[in-house]
Amino acid sequence: xxxRSDIKKVLVIGxxxxxxxxxxxxxxxxxxxxxxxxQEGLEVVLVNSNPATIMTDxxxxxxxxxxxxxxxxxxxxxxxxxxxxxxxxxxxQTGLTLSMQxxxxxxLDSHNVKLLGADPETIHKAxxxxxFKDTMEKIGEPCIPSKVVENVDDAxxxxxxxxxxxxxxxxxxxxxxxxxxxxxxxxxxxxxVNGLRLSPITQILVEKxxxxxxxxxxxxxRDRKGNVITVCSMENFDPVGVHTGDSIVIAxxxxxxDREYQMxxxxxxxxxxxxxxxxxxxxQFALHPTSFExxxxxxxxxxxxxxxxxxxATGYPIAKTAAKIAVGYTLDEIINQVTGRTFACFEPxxxxxxxxxxxxxxxxxxxAKRTLGTQMKATGEVMAIGxxxxxxxxxxxxxxxxxxxxxxxxxxxxxxREQLIEKLHDIDDERSFVVxxxxxxxxxxxxxxxxxxxxxWFLYKLLNLVELEKWLADGExxxxxxxxxxxxxxxxxxxxxxxxxxxxxxxxxxxxMVDTCAGEFKAETPYFYSTYDDENEAEQFIxxxxxxxxxxxxxxxxxxxxxxxxxxxxxxxxxxxTLKELGYEAVICNNNPETVSTDFDTGDRLYFDPLxxxxxxxxxxxxxxxxxxxxxxxxxxxxxxxxxxxMGVNILGTSADMIDAAEDRERFDEILERCGIPRPxxxxxxxxxxxxEAAEELGYPVLLRPSYVLGGQNMIIAHSKxxxxxxMGIITSHMIENPVLIDKYMMxxxxxxxxxxxxxxxxxxxxxxxxxxxxxxxxxxxxxxxAQHLSERIKRIIVEYTRKLARELNVIGLVxxxxxxxxxxxxxxxxxxxSSRTVPYISKVTGIPMVDIATKIMxxxxxxxxxYESGLYPAGDYVAVKVPVFSFxxxxxxxxxxGPEMKSTGECLGIGRNLEDALLKGLIAAGFxxxxxxxxxxxxxxxxKREVLPIADKFEQMGFELYATSGTQSVLTRNMIASxxxxxxxxxxxxVVTLLESGKIHYVISTSAKGRLPxxxxxxxxxxxxxxxxxxxxxxxxxxxxxxxxxSGRTVNDVELVDITKI
Amino acid sequence: xxLFNQSEKxxxxxxxxxxxxGRSFGKKGTVIGEVVFTTGLTGYQETxxxxxxxxxxxxxxxxxxxNYGVNSSDNxxxxxxxxxxxxxxxxxxxxxxxxxxxxxxxxxxxxxxxICGIDTRRLTRIIREAGVxxxxxxxxxxxxxxxxxxxxxxxxxxxxxxxxxxxxxxxxYTPENKKYRxxxxxxxxxxxxxxxxxxxxxxxxxxxxDTIAEEVKNLAPDxxxxxxxxxDPSENTGIIAxxxxxxxxxxxxxxxxLGHQLMALANGGRTEKLKYGHRGANQPxxxxxxxxxYVTSQNHGYAVVGDSIDSSVGRVSHINANDxxxxxxxxxxxxxxxxxxxxxxxxxxxxxxxxxxxxVETMKGEVC
Lengths: 1063, 368
Hints:
A: nine-stranded mixed β-sheet, seven-stranded antiparallel β-sheet, B: alpha/beta, ten-stranded mixed β-sheet, seven-stranded mixed β-barrel, 19 strands, about 25% helix
């Protein structure tokens, strides 16, 4: 059955901003789907609010709407574009839920839009807890004893029947938001109340806790003819109880005999057949560790994070296949692109193993609760491929960027055996490292298994690593030891460190192909991973292809984390496309399975490997590239620059020396002096004493941060000596070898510029102004393009400074500069001679393909010849705002107050004819429920009290009911603004918390001089607001903007929707 | 297995003279066989005990073997028939609730010479490009005896395979609520073929490979099952002649793998040797009658030439989705159907087990 003839124009709904539980994997899936649809000659209309994605690129669809993903907006787009079909299964839960709502309301029928990929009945059966249970019962697939309840009393009653512990899972929430394990009545009460509130249909599932069982997943695909295959099995290192997104995962499943494997595989097939899914489906099972008993945990009738992982782990393009199935093809008609000679209707065979390791933000959120449970907390992940589990694990650990090259974590090295055994009970992000340390201290795998229920298979493999490390440290480093360690995945430098001796020889890794068939067929996939062997398939591949083209390697950005997100993947992929267009062979190195860059047909070759010096060396040796590109892969790629330059590799674009000059404080200061550009005064210190002294000399407040920052990691504003001491304490407890920078903090307007330079001329596509004043991290600020409140003089100065800096740093390609405008003067805060977070957004709203131009410039093209004049590009007709999106509800105990340390996980775009309209859209896209009436709670620090007055005044005039804590209230009263007094938490009930729980409050404005510590009242209040999904504003400037939007009186329905392909 | 603290050296030499150096695994010594590879991710114990591997040195493409150990209930026959065994890495501390021992001990106990620590992907690619070839695994120094061994390798062939694996006596397995009686020809049958029939209420009478029609008739079965087995099918001229008589009995016949090939040969068909066979648990097979594709378990080096089946005799019912070779025949002249793949799985997917249901269906009305 080929392409359906009744499909011509398809609407694809994306997944919106990156949040925990819904990340880059949907950009990958959406991009694959859009490409598959376009290949079929279909017209594609795309809607997604996330500007950082590749799928919202003009090249991906015929019409692109970067608009809020709300029912009203999608309806309007359907009315404007009149698509005949809607593809619902590739935009994560967001896309699926919207599609189902549209179908349920009859809107799709009345507009003659066919729903592709999922049948509402299928979705209902898979997602509604009771319907799912009934369906499973019908086909005899066991579920965990559970009950769907709609109130707390029923939950408590059922828990008494099945006994504690029980798991609570709210219906229809992302990444299990609001769920948890309750050990007793008190805990259940708390979790149930929260879960019921978070569930859009006020429904939770209370189920028997089966923590400790093995967690196994299958990715299944079915077509409308009824062909079914399983793409991949996956086994979680962490047993049931830890969300699979937070678990280390190995593919394929390794501790299952054929009997168990086939039992679960058959169950997965029975399930997808019964649900009649047409496309991809993920089935999660719990398997009793000592019997054949199993239970179906969950079924996702759509492309998911696991399917992205399965795709990368096997080479099987699940999203593309699902898209083709949605438009009518069957599995036996779709060619397996990998071999070019077999069909999609087969099951991949692996001749390697894959380890996925999650990336959490706890290194940034030091006060966050690290415990892992049913609610996902990881922001991203890495994948590693190896010929043994040990090798893959070592590669994964190198890739997660915790500064590790073995599984030894510095903070646990000093722990005693007893402390480690105690610590093993904590199910958190560091447990695998605690296990390793425990094994080192002689705790047996059996003892560890008893506590953690991690399968002995994994524990003995880790014990192999422990023993190997001891063997290396003991006696002469022989060639045999060297070879063995290398096979296990150790680097030369690690071997030398562990043995305290020079390596007896050096042998580089070779590369093997990922071919979906374990070598059974000749494959065409340009997809490789390294291992320690003799035969180098990549070398053979290159020789065989012999294209005669020059090769260029693009280094990607690794795992998605706060501060380095999907935008760098956007840049890397664009660079690759341009390289191909320019006639080069583009080679990608990256380790993130969620991204478009690691799709094997994005570049001419893909190396799925860690991005460390030694790992990269082997790739360079094999590829012998003409040059490499580091400026699009964020800090991950930039960090490689010096080493690559030392190896004699041609760094394309800005030189390694100049990258260093921008990051080295002293060199940078010299440059600024030469250019006559001011910056906030500052010093470099190493110790607490030095820090205090410097802070006092500069005068408080001061900004403290480690040099070589990433996303404002560990950056604070210190108002006093105590703050400085606390901060230095945290910093010095980590592996900080670089100095700490202390700057005078200037509370001005922050301005950001991305520029493209060719060595002679420079182009600034636009100046961005931040709504929040300096002090809030640029990634967490609402950014406006074009700048609305800067005088012509200031703009001229910014353009001039940008020109000087670009020239002085001899920037070839992109540079990102952050300025602060303070007392009508412009100061430079930071210069990054690389791509930045704002590049995709600015490229899309100005229509200037920044990465493409920058790439061409690296190969000698000149801006002039491309038709661009030097300087600031004229602003367009639209105002565009980038609004940050946070995942606070998933990160318990994190203070939500904005500050110099970045906290947002994603962003969305608002675009309109004026600032208010753009802001309106941006805020709605970011999830703000802009209610026009209700209560506003205000509780601000002294320094904000004056500024909050006009905001409070306007709220009051609009008819809102104001509430305030004592200090704030007295200021309001003095200024004739009526408000209710609310007691602080410490004053006893009723207080702020009771008020927030009452449902009266729609907006909270909360700032405090101190924050961070979870036990502080102000932090608790902000946390409560997040838990209750109340719009929470933690910067005066954000509140001001929100008031302006409310005052405009407009709704999103009054604002024009913009197809950005027309900009 | 610890990669350090290693066992003694072992070598694999192929007929083309290529030598791989690895480590000894299982029993020590020297063995010659036909080197083949299987891509199954699980099911190594079933592979090791599948009589169809008689005379062959089996390479596992999945690099980690022995993860869940071995147990007494997953054997497909009473002993192991593989000549040699090649893995990249074997697991010294297996983990599974049914595990009764490790794979190394299993090999030692079954006198199987193995080699580990070699690049199995490289080996697989060589076999894929050159076709299956003979080889030797030895724990002796291969370089010293290279020529002598090469001569032996080159003169080696898997011969008289079925007589070597078939049981000499009749054995009967009777279920509690017996509904039918099936005669199962033991060409080297996998135990689960018997079990699948047994589970469906069939009394299974396992008979030696050379049982003649008269003897079958005397057993008065409701169905006849031709099992899988090793070797070159065309070698079995006596059995093929017997089959011509047996099919005249009018009793429903189901054939699997070698049984499928022998049935074709008995009906004027031809078989050919495939370049490197189909061995694994992921082979897609198209059922030409329903149009559906099934994922199947396979283990065969020979295949029936689809065109060689005369339309008056039967028609090809299944083909391999990858190379389009014949995977099944439905006979029209006699009441028989045969498949090349393994609906009994073990190891591999259970997706085509319904074929046993269909076979039992055809026996209805003839309850004994």
